[in-house]
Description:
By secondary structure, the protein is mostly beta strands. Helices cover about 5% and strands about 65% of the residues. The chain is built from one helix and eleven strands; from the N terminus they run H-E-E-E-E-E-E-E-E-E-E-E. It has one helix spanning about 1-15; strands spanning about 20-35, 35-50, 55-70, 70-80, 90-105, 105-115, 125-135, 145-155, 160-175, 175-190, 195-205. A hairpin with a 2-residue loop joins strand 1 (about 20-35) and strand 2 (about 35-50).
Amino acid sequence: MRVATGLLVSLLIAPSADAQDFQWWSEVDITASARSVDVLGLVVVRTDSRLPNPQLVGGGLEGEVRVLRHLAITGGYLLVDLPQRAERHVQLPLVAATTMVRVRRLNIADRNRFEKLVGFGTSPVRYRNRVLADLRLRGDTKWHLFGEDEVFFDFSTSTWNQNRLRFGGGVRLGRGCVLDLFYLQRNVRGEAPTTHVLGTTLKVALKSPPAQEAR
Length: 215
């Protein structure tokens, strides 16, 4: 466990030293159940080490229904504030379908998400495909490691224009409470520099958490 923790800290700290653009992303997720629907409320804050802050503040609600054993459908609405841009207020309705498979201690999820960025530029529609692998460490249900890759397709330009690679780990702090620490690398098509991100996600479940593992 000490070796795994040391490697994780090293991987998270090392990229920041040479980063052309270094950001910090923080998120708080609160989940609860209403009959057959899992409800997620989230708050997101993003800052940049070299620019005026905050870069982004957002929040919203998502509802997820498990329609089959390995398939879940999600709908949601987010409201995002971009204080440093002229297009400051963005509304983001979304719908997603996620397939999930579990192999022993490994959870794999493939999420297909469509969203519209109302108020941002030409209000484009985006498709996002994310593949996530989440591994619980042997003999310890408190710790887990995860990695994911997500690609973005912009329908307004008919191009795959962004990729986000993320990996990290987390620990269960108590019943229904998990803290994740991660490193993310974002590449945007064009001349934009690679963005290096360190971040945290605090997940608080107001019910038994297993259904939320594949998020």
